[in-house]
Amino acid sequence: MLALRKLGAAPGVALVDVVEPEISGSDDVKIEVAAAGICGSDLHIDHWSPGYHHLGPSLPLTLGHEFVGRVVDRGSSAQSPAIGSRVTVVPATTCGHCAACVAADFDACRERRGIGVMRNGGFARYVVVPARNCIPIPDALPDEVAALTEPVAIGVNAVMTAALKAGEKVVVFGPGTIGQAIAVEARRAGADVTVVGFRDESRIAVLRALGFSQLVDLDNSAQAATLSALADSIDCVFEASGAASAFKAALGLLRPKGRLVVVGIHSAPGEIDLVRLVRKRLQVLGSFSSPGTIWPDVVKRLAADPMMYAKFVTHRYSLENILAGFDVGHRRAASKVIVRPT
Asked: What is the largest CA-CA distance in the chain?
């Protein structure tokens, strides 16, 4: 079968023929992938950005960690999901027996491994995953919307980390899919939301279609000036761009005791004005990935308004043309790109 693979610790990915996977563990299930999203992390892995070099020992592997599909086989110990059922997949696998796992604190498992990042993922027709990572999805939820569960869950988790209150002023740096999800969730919490990008017209257009009007492209000097006018007035800034320069801008926007929630993965350390942070009594919070416990609720949110979330998706490709999807992603000419392996 065809699969999009990272073959070695160097720039580049390749579409190659691989052996169709079969179940090896009794708790595993085999999924026929219906739709998979190209994430910014996939683009960084393709480029071999410094923040992803720790993946080297896991290579070669099939990429793809945002996917949905149908269960076609399962191991002898897997009681659910049923064969034939549609599922989305939490991409973080855990060992199941360490102290953290026994305490059900799966995010603290030291043996966490990402599907599509440290073990074979969903940019192929079939993938084998632990049954416990599967989240059922309703029949009425379209495949490409269900494939958004992972980035939307990251956005929901970030807003939960911020503990937003109705009426608060929020700025989101980074108008990509996760930034869009944060904006939607912050609006749901009753916040006043401004989203900031840089030469991101395709993504800003998605936010405009989602009903956001306070949109800033820093490449436009007039729009950049409107952002400067918000100095010292913002309750919470979400950094979802992965740009180190956003730290300085964020600290300048925050009011005293404001919160900075860092969501993006950065290729290099960012500089923080610690004197400003101390004197303004700011809080810096990290929000990484999302706990599987919130995924069923995220699926319900997607199912409640699939037409809104469908606006996140701007491009669609077959697996045979996935490299074209990577190309539009690298050129920032797309928002969310969906791949159809079948």
From this structure: 62
Map tokens 């599907």 to a residue: 115
Q: How many CA atoms lie within 13 A of 133 on its CB side?
A: 30
User: What pLDDT, on the 0 to 100 scale, is given for residue 25?
Assistant: 82
Helices (H) and strands (E) in the chain, counts: 12, 18
Smallest Cα–Cα separation from 26: which of 90, 84, 75? 75
For the question of whether the overall pTM of this predicted structure is more than 0.90, the answer is: yes
What is the reported pLDDT for 254? Answer: 95
Q: Which amino acid is at 116?
A: G
Question: Residue 332: how many CB atoms within 10 A of its CB?
Answer: 16
Q: Which residues contact 63 (CB under 8 A, 6 or more apart)?
A: 4, 5, 6, 13, 42, 45, 116, 117, 121, 123
Give the list of residues 6+ apart from residue 306 with CB closer than 8 angstroms, or none: 140, 141, 142, 145
**What is the tens place of the pLDDT at every residue in 33-63?**
999 999 999 999 999 988 788 889 999 999 9
The pLDDT of residue 155? 96
| Buried/exposed 129-142: b ≥16 CB within 10 Å, e otherwise | bbbbbbbebeeebb
